Amino acid sequence: MTFIELKQAVYEATMALYHAGLIRMSAGNVSARDDDGHVAITPGGVLYDRMSVDDIVIVDLEGNVIEGQHRPSSETPMHTTLLKGLPGCGAVVHTHSIYAITFAVLGEALPPLCTEGLAARGTVPVARYAPPGTPQAGEVALEALQATPGLRAVLLRNHGLVVVAPDLETAWQTAYKVEIHAQITYQARQLGTPIPLSDEQIAELFRVYRSVREAR
After folding, report:
1. Structural domains in the chain (count)
2. pLDDT confidence tier of residue 216, bands split at 50, 70 and 90
3. Which of 62, 75, 108, 204 is labelled catalytic?
4. Under a CB-based contact definition with an 8 Å cutoff, are residues 181 and 173 in contact?
5. Which residue among 21, 118, 181, 186 sits deepest, i.e. has the most Cβ atoms within 10 Å of its Cβ?
6. Using CB atoms within 10 A of its CB, is residue 211 exposed (0-12), middle (13-18) or buried (19+)?
C-alpha cells in the first residue's frame, strides 16, 4: 500500500467517525499501519471539518515523522505502542464519544448486554489511569487488552475509548457499536437493572454469525 492509499484510508475512517459524532473538533485520533511499519495518523490540532487527505501524517513505529506538513496526533505514542504490541493489529481508533466517556469516568466496565456489545469481543474493561498524550496511556491500554486475548476495545479512565482491529473498517465500526452499546447500557440503567448475556448465549451468537458468514 502506498502512502497516498494509507492516508486516504485513514482520512475516510476519520470522516466516518466524524459524521457519526464519535469524534468532534480535533478530539480523538485514527491510525493504520502497512506491512513495512509505516503508520498513517491524524494530525494534531487540525479540526476535522477542515482536514484533508494531505493533512494525514506518516510516522514510523517509533513515532518519527516520515512525511507530513503537520505534527502527528499527541496520542501517537499510544497508537504506536498498540500497533507494535498487539499481533494482528493494523488499525487503532481513539474516540471521545459521550457514552463511552461516561463509563470511563465512572470506572465501570461494559459487559455484553446486546448484539452491539459483542463487537468488542468481550467485556470492555477500564484501563488504569494514565495522562493523555503520554507513553503510559499506550502501556495501560495494552495491558488491559492483553489481559483478554482477542479483545478489541478498552475504556481509558477519565478519557475515552480505544479500539484495535486488523483493519480500519473493522476498527471504526467497532468503535461505533461500542458507543451504541454504552448508550443502551446507560439508558437501561435508568429504567432498571440490565441483564447481561450469558457465556452460553454469547457463544451461540458467535456460532450463528460464523455460520452466516460461511454460507455467503
Report:
1. 1
2. low
3. 75
4. no
5. 181
6. exposed
- Taking only the tens place, the pLDDT of each residue in 34-73 is 999 999 999 999 999 999 999 999 999 999 999 999 999 9
Written as nine digits, the cell of 59 is 510516522
Give yes or no for a contact between 75 and 133, defined as CB atoms under 8 angstroms apart. Answer: yes
Q: 0.90 exceeded by the pTM?
A: yes
Range of the domain at 100: 3-215
Is 108 marked active-site?
Answer: no
Helix, coil or strand: residue 40: strand
Residue-level length of the chain: 216
Outline where the chain has alpha helix (H).
3-19, 76-85, 98-106, 135-146, 168-191, 199-215
Query: Across-strand partners of 154?
Result: 162
Question: At 122, which CATH number?
Answer: 3.40.225.10
Question: For the sheet containing 153-156, what is the strand order?
Answer: 65-67, 57-59, 39-41, 29-33, 91-95, 160-165, 153-156, 126-127
Show the cell assigned to 63.
Answer: 513515532
Task: Give CA separation, 125 vs 62, 160, 214, in Å.
Answer: 27, 12, 30
**Residues 122-155: tens digit of each pLDDT:** 999 999 999 999 999 999 999 999 999 999 999 9
Residue environment code for 173-204, b if the CB has 16+ CB neighbours within 10 A, otherwise e:
bbbbbbbbbbbbbbeeeeeeeeeebeeeebee
